[in-house]
Amino acid sequence: MKKWNKTLYWVATLWLSLGMISTGLVQVLHIKEQVDPILTLGYPLYFLTFLGVMKCLGVIAILIPKFPILKEWAYSGFFFMMLGAIYSHLAMKESIDKIFPALLLLILTILSWNFRPVNRKVGEI
Questions:
Q1: 20 to 30 Å CA-CA from 12: which of 23, 37, 113, 117?
Q2: How many other C-beta atoms are found inside a 10 Å radius of the C-beta of residue 97?
Q3: pLDDT tens for residues 38-52?
């Protein structure tokens, strides 16, 4: 793996992990700033808890060594979770500042997945 790719992978992965852990914990703890938008969108409160727990577990799966199939599932979950968040914001006709965090996490997910080392890919062990 080229040094540039490795650096890009770790920068994207660490920022992705930080974003997912921080939002996941806020969701699990039901902080008001996260609860109100979810309820406004019509989602039940338990969905917020589920998303938060899945984000935290996904970060663990991506950061631990080995388990490439589990990593693929985590990346897939992050990808569709962020697409769902973007779609929800667009459906509510919210401004770009509300959409941007989910869009940034989506981009970081794609970058982290694309530049991951060979030993973190399925079938490449």
A1: 37
A2: 8
A3: 888 888 999 999 999
DSSP 79-107: HHHHHHHHHHHHHTT--HHHHHHHHHHHH
Count of C-beta atoms within a 10 Å radius of residue 90: 11
Q: Amino acid identity of 125?
A: I
Contacts by residues 75-82 (CB-CB < 8 Å, ≥ 24 positions apart): 75/109, 75/112, 75/113, 78/16, 78/20, 78/105, 78/109, 79/106, 79/109, 79/110, 79/113, 81/51, 81/54, 81/55, 82/106, 82/109
Count CB-CB contacts under 10 A for residue 110.
16
Q: Is 58 exposed, middle or buried (0-12, 13-18, 19+ CB in 10 A)?
A: buried
Return the SS3 of 26. helix
pTM for the model stands at 0.90
